[in-house]
Amino acid sequence: MRIGILTSGGDCPGLNAVLRGFCKCAFNIFDDVEILGFTDGYAGLMNKNYRTLTPADVENILDMGGTILGTSRQPYKLMTVKEGDAPTKLQTMVENYKKLKLDCLVTLGGAGTHKTASLLSVEGCNVIGLPKTIDNDIYGTDITFGFLTAVDIAAGAIKRIRTTADSHSRVFFVEVMGNKVGWLTLYAGLASGADAILIPEIAYDEDKLAQFIKDKKQNSRSVVIAVAEGVVSSREAAMSKKERKDYLAGFGTASAAERLSALMSQSTGMQCRSTVLGHIQRGGEPCAYDKFISTEIGAYGAHLAKVGRFGVTVCVRGNKLSYNMLVDIAGKTKRVPSDGQLVLLAKDLGIYFGE
């Protein structure tokens, strides 16, 4: 069997562990298998840039952050765009899939990667998706590999901020990755004892947030607020796209935490500071759980290839591995329910959500 494998989109902890799990399992369960590792994601398939992977290539990569194959972002919306007489990116990949005589293509990636994988599947390619993202927003799965490592990193940073906030009696806004969903911010905020958690799914009220900070500060030396990068105020939520664009332009390149820090400093008269965690959440060695689940997901993907189960993506349901059809989950986002169990738990603990 000739299998192509690639890592696409933003990097995250566990990519190499999944790659290792898939390859080691495939080398053992197939009588005859060749695995082509495409360089820099879908770009490698477009350009036929690959190398044949051997057992030695994946032997010692379980603990490694990043991806030994490299990755790149190939926007889904450009996959079917026609430029003159040249074939589309999708057509090029389908043609190269055939030219290379692949029996299967395995894609490690997030939402955008899955949408492109679904297109390839519809075009007749045998595709298996393996879900990765620190955002944990892949529809139809309880958890994605890389997520809990990012939670560890973000929660640890928030706890460190607490000590300096206590020392200087300040208000801190700590920005966590999550442009469209707040899973990472919610988990990290709960795990670090944040006083408030602001996520994209729940619009915050600026006046009420200012009052919360004032009230909290009366009985505490510090206030630490976990903020998702894609958070919006109720005022912004009521704006049109153009109005919001113009409004945000007034803050220049300031991040969500930086904007909130400036606004709340003015509203409360208190010293407010901001910290943007950024790409540190995506890098480095995966935690023990992510090493385990990544290995399991990779091996499960190899077994799916063995039995010819294509057009699917692996998922975790109740600590058991299964799969969803790519066409059923592509383009869908798993958002934090505002009345979900974790949000209600946080509120029971006295954590504020800005409403």
Automatic annotation (TrEMBL):
This is ATP-dependent 6-phosphofructokinase. GO terms for cellular component: 6-phosphofructokinase complex. It is an enzyme of class 2 (transferase). It comes from Candidatus Coproplasma stercoripullorum. Pathway: Carbohydrate degradation; glycolysis; D-glyceraldehyde 3-phosphate and glycerone phosphate from D-glucose: step 3/4. Its EC number is 2.7.1.11. Pfam families: PFK. PANTHER family: ATP-DEPENDENT 6-PHOSPHOFRUCTOKINASE 3 (PTHR13697:SF52), PHOSPHOFRUCTOKINASE (PTHR13697). Belongs to the phosphofructokinase type A (PFKA) family.
